[in-house]
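Worked Example 4.2. Consider the chain below.
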Amino acid sequence: MNSTDPLLQPFQLKHLSLKNRILSTSHEPAYSEDGLPKERYRLYHEEKAKGGIALTMFGGSTLVAPDSPPVFGNLYAGNDEIIPYFQKMAEGVHRHGAALMCQITHLGRRSVSNAGDCLPIVAPSCVREPAHRGFPKIAEETDIRRIVKAYGAAAKRCQQGGLDGVEIEAYGHLLDAFWSPRTNFRTDRYGGSLENRARFALEVLEEIRKQVGSTYIVGIRMVFDEALDRHLDGGLRLEEGLKIGEMLVSTGGLDFINVIQGHIDTQEGLSHIIPNMGTPAGPQLEFAGAIKREFELPVFHAARI
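Applying the procedure from the previous section yields the following structure tokens:
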């Protein structure tokens, strides 16, 4: 197609040549069956590919470990059972000229312990999430070591499944709960200073790179500002979010950043990250543009676009 529209121009993401700059970001359509992307899930993303987008990202909040219980139809990449389903999805989406990636995460406090295998949910500190209202167990270092390994193993399964890349989720879940001063009151080497609060995320990224190698595409969808009242609620502020982004990028292990502003632990907060039809189009584009100017990496963004 001959067009001057910037969104329709090709884009090079590492070794991956995308035919345009239109992507569908990770979300959960509740089409999963037994935590797996079976036929209905696959056909949903094949239709997106048929429509002409360059990249479909799926598995919104795909779980990496059993102590991250599913609460909204999540996929589960904590064992090898999912690999053949990834392979079939990759085959179907690639057939229509699109790329595909999966988002992986540990929900942390954003779950309930009476779901899944009925294991205690874990978080940096025992801070209850308003939405799911569970009291999380404080993650011990043995939990942290295990979950770090689980992230790497889940990313490896994405690679073995023929997916073009993987996206780490870091807004409202375990990873960024370590970042935010309103959910991390630890006094060990994972709490206190910003460098300590970023340690877990850096270890996760290092383990993923260890398991998938340097050539596989790895990105992060991360919150840069929780958009909370500084005096009443605390929360992660832009200046700290940018510093965490710089730490992650400086490792050389990231290939793209997907920008998020806000918080999802309340329905009101969620309504700003996933704006409804009554919201003006692209309400966070100016914020995403400001983040883009800070980094050399490709920057993705989706919010009412």
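The mean pLDDT is 96. The two ends are 22 Å apart (CA to CA). Compare this with Example 4.1 before moving on.
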